[in-house]
């Protein structure tokens, strides 16, 4: 009711100013990609330098006249700024150029609105949109003033603007309640996975790094994947099997972007919870992108914002098929642990290396060994079978039972503790895991 949704192919003028006072500039190339992802047709790019933003129009009077000329020349339907504009600045520019104006946050919100597929995703986007638009409602009601007293002029006690704000707050409150219900359902699912000791791998990374393509390749799924920003919005979970670990959950999540609006970070906190509570993060990086270092830093910043900076990370350098002479490989640290995997999700190169690296990192918590049991240890044998830990059983030449066992280390320690057996029975003192 409050939103104007652009139609595909709208003629758009893009505006990017290099701000002398800003240490961290936005990318003009990224603005163009965002506009294309939203379905706009960029026809002109207005650029320039600015010492300080103009409080009234953000840009100077000269640039404003230039912008107005471009809008008239191309008969543009929308002007998109690569900056955050105040509600007053948006309103003032619109009044001058007689054209709809969107800032960077409004553009990202519109893309999210187009991509949302699930009930939860749509609620989250609507909440973020309502929050963003609540300060901009005045644009539609500037002709209405508080009604004065007098015969025929007495109103209901509030302006139309105040009525809309009240309705908007009520709608936001309703969405918060519905999202809280969804959060509880998600928490229940996560608790179930934790009880079953099923590890979760969460794909994170800058938008358009290839997360969904890799997700589809690893899980044989058909999640929507496209060469555009924010192709994935709703989280998707699939089960995969890892050799020495067993079943695991792979989660595909929304991509990050420079200066992701705080409204979106807050609205999507339930979705990003899959990232916060993951066992291992797979940070997918487009190795062919010239700005990859800045993108990596931005992802790490967002992970810190949502409280996921303590979760172990394995870097996945994707799209090696676009680099000449680059082969799939695993990079390791001084201790020999995998820290980076080079692969191509599209070409199918290096998938087995990624599984190998994940296996090595997660298998640290898995006890996989042969256990020799004496005839008096039948209870120990029964507990191992009850836990589903026994892979094979055979007799040795002395008549003892030899079991091949694979189980989480903490579960093995728990069994030993319940039976009153020392940890050294299975864990030598020098490699005691706890």
UniProtKB/TrEMBL annotation:
InterPro entries: G_HFLX_dom, GTP-bd, GTP-bd_M, GTPase_HflX, GTPase_HflX_N, GTPase_HflX_N_sf, HflX_C, P-loop_NTPase
Keyword Metal-binding on entry: yes
An MF annotation (GO) of this entry: hydrolase activity
Alphabetized Pfam families for the sequence: GTP-bdg_M, GTP-bdg_N, HflX_C, MMR_HSR1
Record's keyword annotation contains Nucleotide-binding: yes
Primary location group: cytoplasm
UniProt KW keywords: Cytoplasm, GTP-binding, Hydrolase, Magnesium, Metal-binding, Nucleotide-binding
Residues covered by the Hflx-type G domain: 199-366
Subcellular location: Cytoplasm
Residues that span the membrane, as ranges: none
Stored Gene3D superfamilies: 6.10.250.2860, GTPase HflX, N-terminal domain, P-loop containing nucleotide triphosphate hydrolases
Subunit structure and binding partners: Monomer. Associates with the 50S ribosomal subunit.
PANTHER family noted in UniProt: GTP-BINDING PROTEIN 6-RELATED, GTP-BINDING PROTEIN HFLX
Functional note: GTPase that associates with the 50S ribosomal subunit and may have a role during protein synthesis or ribosome biogenesis.
Family to which this protein belongs: Belongs to the TRAFAC class OBG-HflX-like GTPase superfamily. HflX GTPase family.
Protein name per Swiss-Prot or TrEMBL: GTPase HflX
Organism expressing this protein natively: Neptuniibacter pectenicola
Gene it is expressed from: hflX
